[in-house]
Structures are given as structure tokens and as C-alpha cells.
Amino acid sequence: MRIAAFALITAVALPMAAQAQWLNAFDQLSFDAGLGASYGPGYLGADENDAEPWFILRNVTLGEGGEEKQGFSIIPSLNYLGKRDAADYDDLNGMDDISRAYELGFKLSYVSGPFTSYTHIRKGFGGHHGVVGQIGTRYRHDFGDRLTFWAGAELQAGDDEFTDTYFGVSADEAVTSGYDEYSPGGGFYEANLNLEARYMLNDDWAVLGRAKYGRLLEDAADSPLVKDKNQPEISIGIVRHLNFSF
């Protein structure tokens, strides 16, 4: 299972970072928290686009002067996945509903100048109980004091339980939906490229925009539920910038 590689990397990297006194060596923990709207696939693999709420919770380790802290850091990682109602999509007729999912874990990152490399590991609750991970890199550029731009590439992974929840077809669902039974394995399920921009309206509030192009991979892409492997999405929202000093 490829996601095990994330756990192995983390298990090796964390003690090394702690020994070098890199972990938790930051002056502030900064969050963007807010609400917006996203327009993209109605569910993972859909070819129909829908507008959905975008619950924004982003964090970054900051040092003195508001610059990103250089070197290694570890901070919380949170994520939210909306519910999937089969009745909303003809292609899901006969499939079970999936309730909202919440994911909690941590992010290990390394910042070198404007570049950040990172790994997320999270455990799901609610709609799925799998373990998910992300590995990626991004470039940051500040246009003055108010406008910040990011460009990045990312691979997303999930264990068997995650992929089975969102891409699998159980024996019972095969009977009611007409799809063949399908049990995908865990591993990398999506690669994406993304562009993001934040414009600070004042010291506390900002407008955040994101454009993402995703491509489903491997067992996830082969699921009979997937009608389009391409998964583009655009989002815009309002966030409150919060700083916690230590």
C-alpha cells in the first residue's frame, strides 16, 4: 500500500527534525479560516459540475515579520469532505449515500526560500474512516504587502478504506446499481496542479481564490463510478487571518 510510504517517511523525518531542534521552532501559528464557494465535480469522478460550499481552514508556520519560517516544521492538518447523496446524480442511482467526512492529522513541511515541500497525514471520521496523505511542493511570490500568489503540484493518496468508500462498489450496491462489484486498492488516487491567490483587504480579512486541475489515477480512475478522470475546480472565498504567538 503506497500510503505506507508516507508513514515511513514521517517516522524517519520526525525524530531527525526533533534532534535538530527544527520542530515547533516557530514564533507564530497563522490560520486563514473562512467560507466561500467551489464549482467543480459533484463527486469524485463525476462529469457533472456543481456549486458547493468551500469551508476554508489553512495554516502556515510563520516567523518574525510574518515571513514563512525556513526549515522544518510540524503543524496540524485539517480537511473536510462534503456528503455524497446518490439521489442527486443519475450515475449514482442505487449506490449508498456517503455522509460528511472530517479529517484530522498533521503536516510536515520544509521551507527553503519561496519553495515549500510538504507531507500531510490525516485520519478520517464520519463519512470515511481511512487514512489519507498528500505530498507536494509549491512556490510563493508576494506582490507587495497585500497580494500573495502560490503555484504548486500535489499527489493525493488514500488507503483501501478511503478508496473503497469513494470509488468502490459493494456486492449489495452492484445488485441495486447495475455496476459490477469493484474493490479498489489504496495508493495515489489523484495528481493535481493548483494556483492560489490571497488579497488582504486589511490586517485581518482577505479574499482567497483557487484554481485546481486534478487527474484521477490508478484504481480510482478505473472505477465504474468515474465518468471523467479530469477534475477541474475553481473556488473563491472570504477568510479571517488569525495569528497565535508563542
Automatic annotation (TrEMBL):
Its main location: membrane. It is found in: Cell outer membrane. The keyword 4Fe-4S does not apply. Residues 1-20 form the signal peptide. The keyword Ion transport does not apply. Keywords: Cell outer membrane, Membrane, Signal. Belongs to the MipA/OmpV family. This is MipA/OmpV family protein. It comes from Paracoccus mangrovi.
